[in-house]
Design brief:
Layout (H helix, E strand, L loop, with lengths): L1 E3 L7 E3 L2 E2 L12 H11 L21 E2 L6 H4 L5 E4 L12 H13 L4 E6 L2 H7 L9 E6 L7 H7 L5 E6 L16 E5 L11 H14 L3 E5 L11 E2 L2 E2 L11
Parallel strand pairs: 2-5, 5-6, 6-7, 7-8, 8-9, 9-10
Antiparallel strand pairs: 1-2, 3-4, 11-12
Helix pairs in contact: 4-5
Length: about 250
């Protein structure tokens, strides 16, 4: 359902929807798809709907969970919340009305800070004018290589208080990236079976660009067979920069 998480750049996860489909190279080794298969086999009720076998998998069919909308109201202490670690809120199969409900919950719980991340940047751009954008909602897009830089252009016009990029798994150099209007960058290598290696030059170039343009930079991991395999240090230090947020650490 949610709550505490091992993801380094957040404090909790909240999944009002589950399930997704592959849309680009960054999805090829999707951790959530693998986990959904396991959860289905364990009988977890939220992961019993199968997705399209061509683009998804067992237990990973897109499903909305209206009962999950109550969860943030139950958290007593403020926290930093990653929304939909097991889905994409802007997937075409998530009704516009349900997306709006999720945003209303976030607006009604200003003690928490929410991080929403999508690969469906074009749908985000279309729906954004009809959504409520409180200051505690951060909006991000995944950018794994230069082929998807158009997602950044879509994000740039969204009226979020904080706009961020998740460059994980970083699969190539982001030549041509503009950080205009971007408030935070996360980068990391791929982990798990068949993880594709990340070259140091790709992430160093991104780190240096963030430093030049004064954008907070967070290096999550080098990746490998396990998430912790390569460690988190880049050039002999840990990069944990983040935008200022109001929740307690």
């Amino acid at each position: 359902m949610g709550d505490r998480t091992a993801i380094e750049w957040t404090q909790a996860t909240w999944n009002p929807t589950t399930g997704c489909d592959r849309v680009s190279r960054g999805c090829d080794n999707c951790y959530a798809m693998t986990l959904a298969r396991r959860l289905k086999a364990m009988g977890q009720p939220r992961y019993q709907r199968d997705g399209d076998p061509r683009t998804s998998g067992p237990g990973f069919g897109v499903t909305c969970h209206p009962d999950a909308l109550r969860l943030p109201y139950k958290w007593r202490r403020p926290r930093l919340v990653f929304v939909n670690s097991m889905s994409d809120l802007f997937h075409a199969q998530v009704p516009r009305s349900f997306v709006a409900q999720v945003f209303e919950v976030m607006a009604a719980t200003p003690q928490h800070t929410y991080q929403v991340l999508t690969k469906r940047a074009r749908r985000l751009r279309r729906l954004a004018p009809g959504l409520r954008w409180p200051e505690n909602v951060w909006m991000g897009v995944s950018v794994e290589d230069a082929e998807v830089l158009h997602r950044v252009d879509d994000l740039r016009i969204v009226p979020a208080a904080v706009r961020f990029l998740s460059c994980e798994p970083l699969l190539g150099p982001l030549d041509g990236l503009s950080l205009k209007g971007i408030d935070w960058v996360i980068a990391g290598g791929e982990s798990g079976r068949g993880a594709r290696p990340m070259q140091a030059a790709w992430v160093q170039q991104l780190r240096d660009q963030c430093a030049t343009e004064k954008v907070p930079f967070f290096f999550k991991q080098w990746g490998g067979r396990t998430p912790k395999a390569g460690g988190r240090q880049l050039d002999d230090r840990t990069w944990d920069e983040m935008p200022v947020f109001a929740t307690e650490n």
